[in-house]
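To close the chapter, one final illustration. This time we ask the reader to focus less on the individual chains and more on the assembly as a whole: which components sit near each other, and how the overall shape emerges from the parts.
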Amino acid sequence: MELVYAICVGFMTACGIFLMLRGHTFTLVIGLTLLSYAVNLFLFASGGLTIGAPAVLSSNENYADPLPQALVLTAIVIGFAMTAFAVILAMRGRSDLGNDHVDGTEPFDRLAAEEKS
Amino acid sequence: MSLFDHLVIFPVLIPFFIAVILLFPSLNNAINKQRVLAIAANVLMVVVAFVLLFKVKQQGIQVYALGDWSAPFGIVLVADAFSVLMVCLSAILGLAVTLYASAGEDKTGAFFHPLIMFQLMGINGAFLTGDVFNLFVFFEVLLIASYSLMIHGGGKQKTQANIHYVFLNLIGSSLFLFALGTLYGTLGTLNFADMADRIPLLSDNELLITKSGALLLLAVFGLKAAMLPLHFWLPKAYSSTSTSVAALFAIMTKVGIYSIWRVHGVMFGDQAGELANIALPWLWPIALLTIAVGAISVLASQSLRVLCSNLVIVSVGTLLVTISVNTVQATSAGIYYLIHSTIACAAMFLLAGLIQQQRGKAEDRFVVARAMPQAGILGFIFALLAIALIGMPPLSGFVGKALILQSVTNASQAMWVFPLILGAGLIALIALSRAGTSLFWRTNGENTTALKGHPIQYLAIGLLVVLLPLMVIFGGPVSDYAQLAAEQLKAGLTLQQLNEVAQ
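The assembled structure is written out below.
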């Protein structure tokens, strides 16, 4: 199970980073969302993966670490707020600057220019 | 328990409650009432911060267990000499910024004062907390307030700079969480003192994972502090936002520096066994390069605010040098320099705002423009601040730099530090003289329509400027206090000591 979990987190992080490397706010927001999913899963696993065990201390010897769950909850809430802000900012940027490139201007694309001419 | 026992949490609670009160409808629409309340709250915060400072100086480190849950199960706030000093600094800065903005800048958009309060709450919380995850939460509080403040008032320039700033910091926050997960996975705790206790006890196969987590944290704090490869966002962000916000941001890079000091200087410091001083081999070249690149950018700056932003980068590099020299003496010199550079840079940003306001379309660019109506007084303040920023006697910049140079005793380190810090001083001298001559002397005609500075704006700048000579006149007590802060910081705190103090 650990292997599958690790591969999932790794693949999601890779996808997130790939999307963020494209210089447009829309893909950046999607990439950030993927990255924050990945980081939430990662945090969740940081206390070790346990199945079928209560989260709080009981007479049972085997219990799941409750702290990462609390951390993930906090991280999710913060992530939501930040993503909402990022989306609004991206829309503001689109209307103020006229395009959705992060630098405010589309970079000069030589290939596209050659194709046109 | 009396109210006095809860003093440690006041710097976080006061701005929080005031911000909430400021959002009430009856206050939200009355800007004058907001100003009065915000200024009063800031004065109160300065008083509370200084009372806390004297308490810590007399009674030693104060620990406040939230909800009376003892560490490491609950979150604790730790007020030691260094963190309280930073809280005082942010309170003073907050007061100056609120005063300055009350002259009219707070009217350019909604919610200015509540946002400043939330920002101060995040900054104070980040300084006081004794728990890494709580540090993350306070980082987010100060960041989301800063995102909104940076774009406050609107405009194309601000939007564009804000997009870079926000997305970079969002990525930084994700990295922060990855680092925390990694550290929690191997150490099993997030309390600063408890982590420091457990790092030397790690088994061999956990060392590498912990090391990667720690260095990931260095990247995150480096982004906030604007250390070398991660500094590109700073000049644009600081120079395009509104004046008072830029001045408040002078302490934001210091939050990053402070965290590097706590985590990589102490937690992964001399007592960390196998992982002792893992960040230093990285920090040393980065610090030197940050000074060099910052100084070159200072020379290339075309306007006063960009110049000042680049001076912030130079001061970040200087502080990183004192972290990587890693002695008590260097730390205390660094703390003295940190106070000086924060105050001087913030004052320069505020002054740049007044200059911009009086030069009309030329703003603060180094071009020929009509003379400013209040050029005399502005020029006088500019000269004072320039002397302080360059590090010439008799102001505090000189003392700070002298202390830093004095603390570098190792010849192979001195070989790099002396030329770079002195060279950066020379470059600052050249750049600031050029800036001064073109702003104040290369004029043509008189600008009669320009808006004169409001007395409250001069009061705000004066409040900061007057601290610079005071730091020299009371240099003895201030450097003694910095020494105390450095000793407490370097000695570290074990979980046992922490819980003893809490009781």
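Chain A is about 70% helix and 0% strand. Chain A touches chain B through 33 residues (CB under 8 Å). With these observations in hand, you are ready for the problems at the end of the chapter.
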